[in-house]
Design goal:
Layout: H1 2-15, E1 46-54, E2 64-74, H2 96-100, E3 108-120, E4 123-139, E5 142-158, E6 176-192, E7 195-202, E8 207-209, E9 219-221, E10 224-231, E11 233-234, E12 239-249, E13 258-267, E14 271-278, E15 282-292, E16 295-304, E17 315-324
Antiparallel strand pairs: 1-2, 1-17, 2-3, 3-4, 4-5, 5-6, 6-7, 7-10, 8-9, 10-12, 11-12, 12-13, 13-14, 14-15, 15-16, 16-17
């Protein structure tokens, strides 16, 4: 009962704007599109990702997230002319020769779609968005893209799961109450052969949210702002490293801004591993494998050092990727690594 009450308190705070209202992710370093629509069409293929996240396992009413994203380029013509663009026996297709011959993409468009379901306690949020981005070459090795995503969110509250909250509270309405809200996000993505910088905002439209028409009580949906950056360098001909950072700002959040420190190590185009530290929250580890040039899988485990550690068994996150229409047989991303 105490665990249920604790989680319900968290979700009520989230809806009222005192904490984050959108799901957290650990493996966004593998799918930055989930945070920034400017990545629509950033690669040479249609990038399909399916993910599930079970947060604070063992805690009643804890957050669970599932999503599907897909985005693809339109009119993109990246002609690769070096042998390191392909998997030559004994040669790393992402070795020094490849990056020395890296060239910026020609100007092109990108489109995408995301479906995200986020459940926590008595609340459920289902969001569907379509995205568009335009990629412009700034220099022979640097691109800038700008994009936006628009759609709708269905936010519902199941009063039957609200105990021990007062069932007569008029602010909660009766039964399962749902509200439809417009959703809008936008972002910028600067990327080159050795670095990327991103800035995005989700839930741009501030809106009131109430589950009853008979009360003046309501919460607020507030924007979430993300800033990220990463730098790629070779540790050896076979191993490259990508340290990165992500800052997140949510108005009225107890910790603002929040930030993550990440590092990802990749062996050729085959395996990767990584670690992350989330400020005032905890640590996570990641492992992944490119099964072939059309399928990959990644797993992350989060360990919190907050008070939740005594009541939960950590957080599990799985992500499965498909590279559709991969005409150059890339086994891993070219522009976000």
């Amino acid at each position: 009962m105490k665990k249920t009450f604790f989680i319900l308190g968290i979700t009520v705070m989230a809806i009222s704007g005192q904490a984050q209202q959108l799901p957290q992710y650990t493996q966004y370093v593998l799918n930055n599109y989930i945070l920034n629509p400017a990545l629509s069409g950033v690669e040479n293929y249609a990038d399909l990702k399916i993910s599930g996240r079970d947060q604070w396992v063992g805690l009643s009413g804890a957050p669970r997230t599932a999503y599907l994203t897909i985005h693809a380029p339109i009119g993109k013509k990246d002609y690769k002319t070096t042998t390191s663009s392909y998997s030559v026996p004994g040669e790393n297709p992402r070795g020094s020769s490849y990056w020395e011959n890296y060239t910026a993409s020609e100007p092109h468009h990108g489109v995408g779609m995301s479906i995200v379901n986020y459940r926590t306690g008595s609340f459920n949020r289902l969001t569907a968005n379509l995205s568009y981005a335009y990629h412009l070459g700034l220099s022979p090795v640097t691109n800038l893209s700008a994009g936006f995503a628009a759609g709708v969110s269905s936010i519902s509250f199941d009063k039957s799961k609200a105990t021990p909250v007062n069932p007569s509270d008029p602010a909660l309405g009766t039964g399962v109450n749902s509200r439809w809200k417009p959703d809008l996000s936008a972002g910028l993505w600067l990327y080159s052969s050795s670095y990327y910088l991103g800035l995005s905002a989700q839930q741009i439209l501030p809106q009131k949210l109430a589950f009853s028409d008979n009360t003046s009580d309501s919460g607020s949906l507030v924007p979430h702002i993300f800033a990220s950056g990463g730098y790629r360098f070779l540790l050896s001909e076979d191993i490259n490293a990508l340290p990165s950072v992500m800052f997140k700002y949510v108005p009225n959040s107890p910790t603002r801004p929040q930030f993550d420190l990440n590092v990802k190590l990749q062996y050729r185009e085959l395996l990767w591993g990584g670690a992350s530290y989330r400020f005032q929250n905890g640590f996570s580890g990641m492992l992944g494998v490119n099964v072939n040039n059309v399928f990959n899988v990644g797993y992350a485990y989060d360990f919190t050092h907050t008070g939740l550690n005594s009541a939960s068994n950590g957080t599990h996150e799985l992500i499965i990727g498909f590279l559709l229409g991969n005409r150059y047989s890339d086994a891993c991303p070219r522009n976000i690594w």
